């Protein structure tokens, strides 16, 4: 049976950014570029400790979305954010931006960057689908997956059986002029049905794997959920 710890934080939703927020440039530029098989993804890590918290942004968004959460988490554990293909400072996408392709890229990123297992995957919206897909692959004994996933934090998760009806891409004016960003976001939107089928096919009970769902995208609520899980997983 899936083990869910529900986080009902009645707080105002935090603003999210299609472009990096002012004064938070640590996540805005290229950091460590990691080859994932023909193209490179941008990775940024800070803090020390285990398990490693690995963040996955929402549809069409980059790692800088986590700038309000990362510092507090990094005080307790190693915390890493990255940009999917075509987003942030990562190279343009080479194939359809599906959940399966994103989880494969993430697996290569973990392996090639030498990130230290185990991992707590933190995904928002569409990113929660990517995180779950990798977690499900990691639980398949026959799969070649670098990630050892010991927990999931799902922030306002998109579900494969409840995709958004309105899929119009509302782009930041500056980013709308960037072809790589446009292609990546459009591909994620266009591939949603395929991504849903991929996750639906992979879906199995998470068993004893702890899963926390955060219903509001408020930094304080997200941080509290992550630290709750990290504390629970500490030896």
From TrEMBL:
Pfam families (alphabetical): Abhydrolase_1 (PF00561)
Start and end residues of each AB hydrolase-1 domain: 63-207
SUPFAM superfamilies listed in its UniProt record: alpha/beta-Hydrolases (SSF53474)
InterPro entries: AB_hydrolase_1, AB_hydrolase_fold
Span of the signal peptide: 1-18
Keyword annotations: Hydrolase, Signal
Domain of life of the organism encoding this protein: Bacteria
GO MF term set: hydrolase activity
The protein, known as: Alpha/beta hydrolase
Lineage summary: Bacteria, Pseudomonadati, Pseudomonadota, Betaproteobacteria, Burkholderiales
